[in-house]
Predict the structure.
Amino acid sequence: MAFASPHITAYAVEATEFPDLARRYEVTGVPKTIVNEDVEILGALPQDDFVEQAIGQLAKNDSQLTK
Amino acid sequence: MALLTSGDQQKLKDAFAEMTRPVRLLFFTQTLDCETCLTTRQILDELPPLSERISIEEINLILDRDKAKQYGVDRAPAIAIVGEYDAGEWRDSRIRFIGAPAGYEFISLVQAILLVGGRSSSLTEENRTRLAHVTAPVTMQVFTTPT
């Protein structure tokens, strides 16, 4: 998704090396995706659902996000 | 001693042969307080021998804060992936790996290298259209573990 959009940056974070980050985002199971410190996605989802949850939720919370 | 078996090295060589664009791995490291920096360096060092199109640039997080800030990196080890689109013109893929790319993350790293290196995206046309409508910055942090 990051490669496809100039506005998106994707970080793959190895939780065991950075326990403070894992704690901050309450990571108890992986994969766990945090979008803009706002939306949480648990587990590995099918592509459509993942994109919808990542972008769709943000659009609802922040009308500035999408055109 | 190589970390990869010769069978794996050959498979990777074959996969990397399809790359059409040079890819550079910007490896952010620090001298102290980085237990996995050495492991990461060892893992990354396995890759350039498998393709002429893969190179590594090591950047010290403490000594080169500007570059770290440019790539939004404040932890080590971290890897940012850039691709060369025209001679000397390197573009950020906005893909980052924070922590050693061990276990399954190594596969993710390889896939990211192939993507930046020219492989087609696995995103559907519909999803690419949805993403084209994003106009504000989005940060996605995906937490994983090696197994």
